[in-house]
Amino acid sequence: MMLDSEPMPSTPRQVSNVASVPVPAQPGQADFDEIVTFAWTHLQTPIAAVSLIDRETVWFTSAVGIAQAQFAREDSFCDYVISGGCELIVPDALKDRRFSKISLVSDYPKVRFYAGVPLRVSGEWVGAMCILDRRQRAITPRQLGILRFLGRQVQHLIELHGLPNARLSTGQESVIGGERDG
């Protein structure tokens, strides 16, 4: 587990080329949405998402509580999850020098808390299952266990259906619906 003050590993782990994993027409998308909604509801965070990553971009293929659907990889928490190959917990992103200046923290949606588990499919790092909050907070062992479980379910869905297509933001607060104040 990578905690909030640990530096990024000096030897980057294998990073996927998302294009190498099959992308279906959309089968299974409802399953991804259900997992994200479950995380949002049961882990009590204003934002929950499945993020996918390629060499330059991170996008939320399924998300609740955030309108921004994609952003530069270097401006993301997911890059650290993938590079470290392990879960990442950031109790207060404003106090963490790695993240205090990224746009998700300094601008909308002003993220303070992040917890993400890596998604690995067929030996390729493809993204993260994550929860975010606009307030600093801790994650309990029970919540982390749920997040890990949900991440494994996302991995199984990707293995079964391939990667879901990235969906463009509708400009609303959520890609799939729901809103919770953080």
Give a summary of the structure in a few sentences.
Helices cover 25% and strands 22% of the residues. The two termini are 25 Å apart.
Account of the protein in words:
Helix content is 25%, strand content 22%. The protein has a six-stranded antiparallel beta sheet, sandwiched between helices. Helix 1 packs antiparallel against helix 4. The chain is α+β, with helices and mostly antiparallel strands.
Helix content: 25-40%
Which blocks of ≥5 consecutive residues have pLDDT under 50? 7-14, 21-27, 166-178
What share of residues are in beta strands?
15-25%
Mean pLDDT: 81
Number of strands: 6
Largest sheet: 6 strands, antiparallel
Structural class: alpha+beta
| Order of helical and strand elements | HEEEHEHEEH
The gyration radius over C-alpha positions equals: 15 Å
